[in-house]
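Lab notebook, bench 4. The sequencing result for the construct came back, and we need a structural model before the next group meeting so we can plan mutations. Quick request posted to the team channel:

Model the 3D structure of this chain.
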Amino acid sequence: MNINLTLISQMIAFAIFVAFCMKYVWPPIMKALDERATKIAEGLAAAERGQQEQEIGRQKALEEMKAAKAKAADIVAQAQKRYNEVMDEAKRDAQGEADRIKTAAHAEIEQETNRAREELRERMAALAVAAAEKVLEKEIDASAHKALIDSFAKQL
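Done. Here's the predicted structure in token form:
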């Protein structure tokens, strides 16, 4: 065998093999590589979009938290204001009730005082009448009158 013929036949076989590979093997491999590259690119783009959406979501969550804190602060302020109003109203009501009770107590005390004065006047009148009766019953004697007046004073 001739080395040139072997070399040429190997070159022809290699060229046929390369042509076969280029025609039938290379396109599916390139297609698979292109699809894989496309999927990787889409995955990276989706990851980037996900990170952007995550950042947007984080910002929205912070805004919502700020809004919720502000709303909670408003609610607390309104509750405090209402508490103060209720307390002031309760104080006014209690003061009014205390004034009413005080007025009623003063009126009752005044009424009791008037009753006691009237009762004292009636007793004084009765004692005066009794003393006058006793003075008129006895004869006129200065020492007897003095003893009677002392006895009358003790009864008062």
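The CA atoms of residues 51 and 57 lie 10 Å apart.
Will bring this to the meeting.
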